[in-house]
Amino acid sequence: MRSDPNGSGKTGPGPVAKATEPGPVASGGSDEAADLARARRQLLTGGSETGPGARNPAGHGRRLDAAALRHALVDLHEFWLTTKGAELGIKPDSGFALVAVGGLGRRELLPYSDLDLLLLHDDMDPAVVAQVADQLWYPLWDAHIKLDHSVRTIPQALQVADTDITAALGMLEARHIVGDVELTNLLISGVRRQWRTDIRNRFDGLIEQTRSRWERSGEIAHRAEPDLKSGRGGLRDVQLLNALSIAQLTDGMPGLGPESPGGGLALAHRRLLDVRTELHRVAGRSRDQLRAQDADEIGAALRIGDRFDLARMLSDAARTISYSVDVGVRTAGHALPRRGLARLRRPPVRRPLDEGVVEHAGEVVLARDARPAKDPGLVLRVASASATTGMPMSASTLNRLADNAPELREPWPKEALNDLLVMLGSGSRAVAAIEALDRTGLWGRLLPEWGAVRDLPPRDAVHTWTVDRHLVETAAYASGFTTRVARPDLLMLGALLHDIGKGRGGDHSVVGAELATQIGKRLGLWPSDVALLTAIVRHHLLLPHTATRRDLDDPETVERVVEAIGGDGVLLELLHALAEADSLATGPGVWGDWKSSLIGELVRRCRLVMAGEVLPAPDPLDPEHVALAASGGVHVALVPADSPHTYVVTVIAPDQRGLLSKAAGVLALHSLRVYSASLGSAEGSAVNSFVVSPRFGAPPQAGLLRQELIRALAGELNLLEMLTAKEEEARESQRVAAVEERGEAAVPVQYAQAPPRVIWFDTASPGEVILELRAEDRLGLLSRLADAFDTCGADVRWARVTTLGSSVIDSFCLDLGGGDTRASREQVESAILGVVPLTKPKKQEGSGGE
């Protein structure tokens, strides 16, 4: 059977046909490539012979390392093909050129990879072409060397590249071996020009093909037996980046440098190549999937260590590549040439998100006046904005922060801790934000203890994720349980740190508790909160281990749990929520009805033993404020608080219905975020103090706030309508950005991670109740809640408002007018649930708390 001169695939071996016309070929026997095959075997076994006349680049009689082996294989095959081509008359001006694609084209030839060759000809006589092809291919087949070949003219090759993305990607990596170099140059320049010209039409298909490959092959960083070639973060992804670079859409090495945790894209690429090289050598054949039984041998060959060390290195490399691909694809999408009416589209606007942080072209970037070298909290504000909006952080922004942002002083400012909590409270959106910070070295600056768990593989097969990703996933799940607990901030921090003691030897709960104490102090938590965070980490396995391994009917079982947690009911509920989040983040089937019921019963019995509950209580009033209240009139004061960018706004005015709603609404309209509030009354006046932080720039003057409040009380401002319009404006801005930059029809609703929860407490006074609301924050929430109380005829006697990240814990003492009936409570509850953020429907896609 003769080679098809215009064919695109392999032709099986058979008797070599004689050409009907003499061509520029030299005769040869069927064993011409036997020396090549023998030299390949000797390279793999450490032999000294490298082929007929070939040099041995690594010396004689020793085993080559992975990189040297690839280089030697490339040299060996190039020598044979060059020599053979010369024998066949494939020389300059011959009208023929032999071109390498695939591994040989990239100079990354692996021990058992196919030899991918393209025989180009300048529209030569088909008989001559067939004879040359036969004389070239058959010796390789006879030597059992795997060959993927094609024979084409340049127009034929360009036509194939134009219709087949896979073929085009291969030809983008083409490299001249022997023959007419002008033919090769015409092919390479033609394919690349064609690729650049038509990239807009092919980009969507290229990305769709990539995502389909990821779905089939999985994620290398978190697979027990990863596909090194086609998995997410694998070698195909590096080729994708090269293709986007050739299209002049990216710089080919986006987002990461050698100082990043993964050592940069180039190092990650070499590491994957080395592992795949040793995988071929160990398996004795071409293989892309790393089997568990081969991991120890490969780790030893590469001098990495055992299979766990190898898995950690692979995770590091794959996540580095994955991040680079995300950046590269996003950058390429923005750089695509526009056509038609798209050319007339307005440039993307810069929409403010936070102090020094804006949205631009669907990414979170620094404002023009941002000064990262003088603003340590900027890193967390950028990450928080990314997580809450779902928009990625710009690679250039992250690089600028990595180069210039100083360390946060210890203890952290309250605003920095709040931004961290907001990010953690965003559920699955926090995963991408933390991954981006980690790959660029910023996460390790915030939490130096993270290095010991970064990319650390689990020792138990039931775990889906590496230890560091498991911690982030647990925090994402925990964000969906924040309304179950009185301290959502400590729940999310405990979830993030519960396994931080792994990778250091010893009991990870004990080691982790010591680290949690260290971290809690750095974050600026109160000493009592540091102790509670430490206890969460120390006892995070207490409930699941006790419930599944002990007899719950034995009174000593419950007493031991109560004793271990010091009879602390808040700690008990935190451990209960963390146990579920931890199990859900571990892997499928770890959390179920059986485990849930056992832990729930253990918690119920512990509560019975610890019976007793402390009611919320009002904060004491400042005597100066009481004196001012006695003087009457409307007073608004704004003074700096005990941390930078934080202020205390005190509003004193004659007590009247609607005052709280209007005061809180004025603050929200002026972009003042309320961290906490204490609301009371004295001498016939309301005394309301708010701890606030301006979202942008400096706060407004107290006089302006007073004027706006007086106008609102006079009915000149409809604050609720204005707040709703401000929310709609922000939502519309996101929708326009999504349509223009990402082609999405609409912006998805930003649902709350956890369902709201209302808790009622009775007091000794008739008609008076205490309502505690646990929910997710929104613009002007306090104003809306107060208006809902007014609508229901419920008078707020005092209140304590606390915002912890994106969660609120608000306690209101309500006078229901002597009609403390079930109907009154239901009316109030229905009203306030109508103004809190919507809860995400169940069974939504996404990680963690989604």
Automatic annotation (TrEMBL):
PROSITE patterns associated with the record: ACT (PS51671), HD (PS51831)
Similarity comment: Belongs to the GlnD family.
Disordered: region residues: 1-37
Source organism per UniProt: Rhodococcus jostii
Cofactor requirements of the protein: Mg(2+)
Entries under InterPro entries matching the protein: ACT-like_dom_sf, ACT_dom, HD/PDEase_dom, HD_domain, NT_sf, PII_UdlTrfase/GS_AdlTrfase, UTase/UR
Residues of the HD domain: 467-581
Keyword vocabulary terms for this entry: Hydrolase, Magnesium, Multifunctional enzyme, Nucleotidyltransferase, Repeat, Transferase
Keyword flag Hydrolase: yes
The name this protein goes by in its record: Bifunctional uridylyltransferase/uridylyl-removing enzyme
MF GO annotations: [protein-PII] uridylyltransferase activity
Phylogenetic placement of the source organism: Bacteria, Bacillati, Actinomycetota, Actinomycetes, Mycobacteriales
Residues of the ACT domain: 648-722, 770-849
